[in-house]
Amino acid sequence: MKSEKISELTTNRLSVYLRCLNLLTAAGIRTISSQALADQFNLNSAQIRKDLAHFGEFGVRGVGYFVEELRQHITKILGLDTARRVGIIGAGNLGTALANYNGFTSSNFTVVALFDNDKAKIGREVGPNDGGIKVHDVRKLARIVRDEQIDVAVIAVPARVAQRALNQVMSAGIKAVLNFAPVRLHARLGVKVKTVDLTISLESLSYFLTRPQITCVTNPRSILPYEEIAQREEQESLSAPASKN
């Protein structure tokens, strides 16, 4: 891998590529070109090749990418070949909903603990089928993080106490934090905080609704694997383009 700094936009796109490659693997597709991948992501093939070039050389000219091989490479690049154990700070409606979310396991993330300061919630078990994930006293955060080997924290508390929650998380030694509180948090050097602000996203949609003349589509329907194969074969038969990865 090259030593240059990789932007977060690039790593975000890698996650999209991985999701598509997982679908292609499930569909039994063994090779795919960068152009076909670009069609899936509403990007361009040059962008895909540039992103992948940060991490090495992939693909074979005239053949394209071997789907399973590239899938394994990106999985390793994103660190998803290592199981990630997640602790959720806040066992309210949002925290409980996140604990019940089944999508984490497909990306090698497992929620192993929740934390709260509400005595009525401490000791309860939540999660899939209302069982298995215990709500702990947040005052015991450092010990539970150590015992459960938690390496990712999710902050799902009100904005007014989010910084305090982050301080506790950092003191416990966690360096990766997903924050759902609608506030900018200040992390120490070496700690990565990624904020998901639902209100900002909704306000952006409101802006779109006030201007009905705007017709751009930012998230078109993804092309299904069998559709992109048919399109690729049709394009090749009509134009016979030069071979590219």
Instruction: Classify the fold: give the CATH topology of the largest domain.
Output: Rossmann fold
Tally of strands: 9
With strands numbered from the N-terminus, the spatial order across the biggest sheet is 5-6-4-3-7-8-9
What is the name of the CATH architecture of the largest domain? 3-Layer(aba) Sandwich
Assembly state of the chains shown: single chain
* Domains (count): 2
Query: What overall form do the CA principal axes indicate?
Result: globular
Protein described:
With 245 residues, the protein is α/β, with parallel strands linked by helices. It has 2 domains: 81 residues, Arc Repressor Mutant, subunit A (Orthogonal Bundle), CATH 1.10.10.10; 118 residues, 3-Layer(aba) Sandwich (Rossmann fold), CATH 3.40.50.720. The chain is 42% helix and 15% strand. The chain is built from 9 helices and 9 strands. The strands form 2 sheets. A 7-stranded mixed β-sheet has the order 5-6-4-3-7-8-9. α5 links the parallel β3 and β4. The chain is globular. About 3% of the residues have low confidence.
